[in-house]
Amino acid sequence: MTDELIESILNESRSFAPSKKFIKQANLNKEEAERLKEEASRNHIEYWAKLAKDELDWFLPFKNILDESKAPNYEWFNDGEINASFNSLDVNASNNPEKTAIIFEAEDGKSERITYKELLSRTSQFANGLKKLGVVQMDRVVIYMPMCPEAVIAMQACARIGAIHSVVFGGFSSNALKDRIEDAEAKIVITADGAYRSGNIVPLKQATDEAVAQSSHEVKNVVVFKRTGEKVEFNQERDIWWADLISGCDSHCDPEPLNAEHPLFILYTSGSTGKPKGIQHSTAGYILHAKTTFSWIFDIKKDDVFWCTADVGWITGHTYVAYGPLLAGATILIYEGAPTFPDVGRFWKICEKHAVTIFYTAPTAIRALMKHGDEIPQSYDLSELRLLGTVGEPINPEAWMWYHNIIGKERCPIVDTWWQTETGGAMISPLPGVTNTKPGSCTMPMPGIDVDIVDESGESVEAPNQGGYLVIKKPWPSMLRTIWGDNQRYIETYWDKFDGRYYVAGDSAYKDTDGCHWIMGRIDDVLNVSGHRLGTMEVESALVSNEKVAEAAVVGKPHDVKGESIFAFVVTKGNRPTGEDAKKMQQGLREWVNEQVGAIAKPDEIRFSDNLPKTRSGKIMRRLLRAIAREEAITQDISTLEDESIIKQLQGKE
Ligand code: WT7
């Protein structure tokens, strides 16, 4: 037996039960969780209908539950009317107006608290500002903002008036922003004069100006929030300061009653082509799953301070910052800056300062902080923490144990939540008062979520520890509705594999003997770099758009902090660069990719060769490249290679 195999067997059998104390106070106990699962399996439709009635406030109650007539474009509750912002803000401002909705921690250490009442009035006022600019239902509004309360206010304001937001992560380049503006045909862009990051200012307004100038679609207005006071270019006809826009606007704005299926937002994510997909979500179904999974998985109580470290530019920041917690009337913490600023203790310092009780982050962040040793977290008071979470990639057992011992002091359950931009909310996760957790496993599906692992022919894999395709067998309310502007791609990507029978997640996974789920990784050419999804094709197309590059192939390579790192093989036009020339070119290309996509897409390694390995039919031998990047022995048949001598070059030995 190999060490790896022994380790994996040990992992599977090592399990952690929630403490008696935790079980006693948990929102969901074993009986309730079993009842929910039983109700869902007995009558899937009724199960969701009951939740939707109990958990959401409707302007017009629905009669239809699930409409399958346009499958796989499923619709839920589609004769009901509702508003996401009303359910988040008005409901809680009326129940508990003085409760803190948002604690904002700026990078410089200043903090601010916003109550539900204030959040409602600030959102309403900004919504009136958007109306003044002529924004109406179905208009697309791009939000390219720092991580600050105004980003959430902008999202909630769009939801209030039925505009569709498309948040673009502030770390993306102007070029990536331009692509997203064009694809969504955005009427308005909301940005800031800058964002603070590691003590520097990220010039968001400048990037917006470039993107808008280059966009083939004309943006009507750019709203600029003053965050840094840095001097920025200002186009008097097009640009307007946030403060000027809302000045004179009423702080009351009636929420629009919207159809349950009204698109709440578009969020772009990477796929197996060079072009990101605009994942489109609905209103009612999305907020239903966001709210219920938030309360169940994070066991939220009235005095909790919940901190999800994700930026609102990702789905995690949508579901578990801007919507789920506010729908549940919780107090959230928003942190503006870098995890390592001014030093690597910043996360723990924030937990201490604001008495954070529930902390949710990515394995990559845990690994990065773990590297700096135990003394740093041990020098802060983390005694308020009672529950920890992870998301975005598989967590290695070593990082899980560190999180459990050093951060959670063996007292806090860890919820490892598996989900995707497409699923809208968590799908497989422990329930902290119910499920025994295992380091590295996301454990069991949520009530009402019908997960399975199937083989190539779509049959369930019954045997334990056997890998297969992770699929969802029944539609669920928060599922994506389509890909913006490309329904064909929606059908091909998620449904064609098994003739429309199941939603295909794109991950492979297996179940162990206890029925716990273990995610093995993507089955397509998608990388997971620091918990962020990135298409190899996206990086390749960025590389080949450089005038010096003839061809490029990008593969992933395991990385101890990032999970995966990006390895690019590049064929240049003209002679293959070597020595100093190669170094310069590597640097230039990394910067180029940064400009084309953003810092997260910068290749960690670039290797030049005269050719890429191709089969006689011209296909790039990716598995071979992957083995070379990982310095593994080559087991592939290379006899079909056109030119065997390039292997040494690819290995960097020549
Ligand atoms: C992909 C989705 C869900 C928000 C963040 C990422 C991987 C996600 C886990 C987990 C193992 C995970 C999957 C998935 N993934 N969570 N707990 N364990 N893998 O959202 O960018 O849409 O990426 O992230 O591969 O398909 P995303």
Describe this structure in words.
The protein has 654 residues and is α/β, with parallel strands linked by helices. The chain has a domain of 121 residues: ANL, C-terminal domain (GMP Synthetase, Chain A, domain 3, 2-Layer Sandwich), CATH 3.30.300.30. The chain has 21 helices and 30 strands. The strands form eight sheets. An eight-stranded mixed beta sheet has the order 12-11-8-6-7-14-15-23, with helices on both faces. The protein has a seven-stranded mixed beta sheet with strand order 5-4-17-16-18-19-20, sandwiched between helices. A four-stranded antiparallel beta sheet has the order 21-22-24-25, with no helix packed on it. 5'-O-[(S)-butoxy(hydroxy)phosphoryl]adenosine (WT7) binds next to helix 12, strand 20, strand 24 and strand 25.
CATH superfamily of the domain at 530-650: ANL, C-terminal domain
CATH topology-level name of the domain at 530-650: GMP Synthetase, Chain A, domain 3
- Total strands: the figure is 30
Bound molecules: 5'-O-[(S)-butoxy(hydroxy)phosphoryl]adenosine
Estimated radius of gyration:
25 Å
Shape descriptor: globular
Q: Order of strands in the sheet with the most strands?
A: 12-11-8-6-7-14-15-23
Percent in strands: 15-25%
Q: Largest sheet, described in full?
A: 8 strands, mixed
Mean pLDDT: 95
Q: Pairing-aware structural class of the strands and helices?
A: alpha/beta
Spans of at least 5 consecutive residues whose pLDDT stays below 50 are none
The count of helical stretches stands at 21
CATH class value of the domain at 530-650: Alpha Beta
State the distance separating the first and last CA atoms. Answer: 36 Å
How much helicity do the residues have?
A: 25-40%
The assigned CATH architecture of the domain at 530-650 is 2-Layer Sandwich
